[in-house]
Amino acid sequence: MTPPRLTRPVGRQGPGRIPHGLLESLDLIVARRASGALPGDRRAAGLGSGTELAQLRPYEVGDDVRQIDAAATARTGTPHVRLHVPERTLTTWIALDLSPSMAFGTTRRLKSDVAEGATMVIGRLAVRRAGRVALMTFGAGTPRLLPPRASKPGVVALQRALAEGVAPDGHHEPGALRNALRRIGRVATQPGLVVVISDWRDEDDWTRALGALAQRHSVLAIEIRDPREAEVPAVGRLALVDPETGERIEVDTSRASVRERFAQIERERRERVGRELRRLAVEHVVLSTDGDWLADLGRRLS
Question: DUF58 domain spans which residues (predicted)?
Fold first, then answer.
């Protein structure tokens, strides 16, 4: 099946300005959240450049003279070199939802705008400390993988992918979230940080795939919401279209029972998502299209 052509959604506002000062403070917060996967926290195989001493031994021909330890040399009268445990670079894997429902928004921004901002913040933080960032998009045909890149090339790759937009209405991809998580599990062979950015409206079971990732990686789930998804106003008869399937229905919102049932279904869905993430011990951050998403991200991670 030919994947749908991505489009820039109508009404796009963009994520807004990202202050440098707040980005600096988030750098330390994200580093702490991913402490189990940061460079130097686990021993890598072999010897190399790092901060943890692995061995102090007599100098041999061919050793790097810059590794000579002056104190040990003076104490023993024989040149000694310091060999260190190499630090493992942290790779951050971002799983980004491009399904049609991400083009929805009734307040300051679309959900895709907030997702774009969160992706860029995580990506910029990821390439610091000599790290790398990879992107897996899903919800728009076969999951697309941008392999890990460091420094500016990694950020530029994210920007280009985000510029392509999201899938058009009616192109629902069953099990897209689950399949993307499984693919990350196959390609992310070394422990790292996995950040899933989505509205988490995929009804297919993704818990097993996410649980498998959480056993090996630090995982952060970022859920994007819009206030209108939680309740429907009393505005009479409405014709509504499901962006995922393209199905059209008519509802009479003047009926209190309809509004209450709508709110109940959505409340149960959100509770189910939150409950599963807690069960898997996955950090859960909720961002809304209504408000300062960047400040909310900083507060929830601090």
Answer: 56-271
Pairing of the two strands 132-138 and 144-150: antiparallel
- As a whole number of angstroms, the distance between CA 27 and CA 60 comes to 41
Identify the pLDDT of residue 238. 84
Classify residue 97 as exposed, middle or buried by CB count within 10 Å of its CB (0-12, 13-18, 19+). buried
Q: Cα angle vertex 207, ends 150, 181, to 5°?
A: 25
Residues 135 and 95 in one domain: yes
Q: Which long-range contacts (CB under 8 A, 24 or more apart) does 248-252 make?
A: none
Give residue 79's domain range. Answer: 52-85
The predicted pLDDT at position 23 comes to 72
70 and 206 inside one domain: no
List, for residues 95-132, the tens digit of each pLDDT value.
Answer: 999 999 999 998 889 999 999 999 999 998 888 767 88
Residues 237 and 135 in one domain: yes
C-alpha closest to that of 100 among 190, 175, 9, 233: 9
Q: Which amino acid is at 126?
A: A
180 and 250 housed in the same domain? yes
What is the residue whose two structure tokens read 């049932």? Answer: 261
Which CATH number goes with the domain that contains 150?
A: 3.40.50.410
Q: 124 with 69, same domain?
A: no
Rounded to an integer, what distance in angstroms lies between the CA atom of residue 160 and that of residue 156? 6
Determine the Cα–Cα distance for residues 292 and 29; give it in Å rounded to an integer.
Answer: 18
Q: Report how far residue 95's alpha carbon sits from residue 221's, in angstroms, rounded to the nearest whole number.
A: 10
Assess whether 134 and 77 both reside in one domain: no
Q: Is 95 helix (H, G, I), strand (E, B) or coil?
A: strand
Distance, CA of 219 to chain centre: 8
